[in-house]
Fold:
Amino acid sequence: ARSRIDSLKLKKCQIRYSDITNTSFNGNSADLVVIHQVLHYFDNPYDVIKEASRLLKVNGELFIVDFSSHSIELLRSKYSHRRLGFSSDQMNELLKNNNIKVIEFRELKRESESTDENLTVTLWLGKKIK
Structure:
């Protein structure tokens, strides 16, 4: 990603490495925070959302990509998933409790080759309201 940003000469884009639950970045400084397929690895995703909200400016956007609720235990045992996805209600509550309003929600269904169950990826776009 870094080389792509450099090749496109994007001056206002940065990629940084940090603890997602406790970054050293200034609060109220980000226009956009992206959390892509990592929330299911956390015992307490609230901490991740809380930090994202701290980073966002008012009206800044949070884009989350993760699995919808499912029961594929293999993902827990083989790939160390702590959570088996998120229901819409769970995510809405996490976001609401951190001053983020869901403005768009989309489910992308995909057939899983390893089980008989469908695995759905969900996209949530939220806006910090205060």
Residues 70 and 84 are 6 Å apart (CA to CA). DSSP finds four helices and four strands in the chain. The domain at 26-128 is CATH 3.40.50.150 (Rossmann fold). Helices lie at 2-7, 45-55, 74-79, 88-96.
